[in-house]
């Protein structure tokens, strides 16, 4: 099973032929700019396409703190995205209170563990919308 840096490497090398389909769901690669270092960081994340947008969840497995990639995109919402061989820039934003319930249901349908992650933390787990540029 691909995970972490190896997941990113194989995804990039194969234009997602290896790594897009993952454990019964689908993943994209999100590249953010480090808010302190300015370096680029790429993370494989479960996604769902909703209309023209891509939706991801900043769950960090239910940890008490937000994932680094989420903190990075809060500082700089201009991100790079790869879905299979399709590479593009996007603007990331946290889903509004009105959008979130429906998007959360969509993401839980794709990865039911999100509900378990939500139970494990007092943190409000953000749902992020990636709007293609």
Automatic annotation (TrEMBL):
<protein>
    <submittedName>
        <fullName>Nitroreductase family deazaflavin-dependent oxidoreductase</fullName>
    </submittedName>
</protein>
<dbReference type="InterPro" id="IPR012349">
    <property type="entry name" value="Split_barrel_FMN-bd"/>
</dbReference>
<comment type="similarity">
    <text>Belongs to the F420H(2)-dependent quinone reductase family.</text>
</comment>
<dbReference type="InterPro" id="IPR004378">
    <property type="entry name" value="F420H2_quin_Rdtase"/>
</dbReference>
<dbReference type="Pfam" id="PF04075">
    <property type="entry name" value="F420H2_quin_red"/>
</dbReference>
């Amino acid at each position: 099973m691909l995970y972490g840096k190896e997941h990113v490497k194989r995804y990039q090398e194969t234009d997602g032929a290896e790594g897009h389909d993952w454990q019964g769901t689908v993943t994209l690669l999100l590249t953010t700019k480090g808010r302190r270092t300015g370096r680029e960081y790429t993370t494989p994340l479960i996604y769902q396409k909703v209309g023209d947008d891509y939706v991801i969840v900043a769950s960090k497995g239910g940890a008490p703190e937000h994932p680094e990639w989420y903190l990075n995109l809060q500082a700089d919402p201009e991100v790079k995205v790869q879905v299979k061989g399709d590479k593009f820039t996007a603007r990331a934003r946290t889903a509004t209170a009105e959008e979130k319930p429906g998007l959360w249901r969509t993401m839980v349908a794709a990865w039911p563990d999100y509900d378990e992650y939500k139970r494990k933390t007092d943190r409000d787990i953000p749902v992020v919308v990636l709007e293609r540029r």
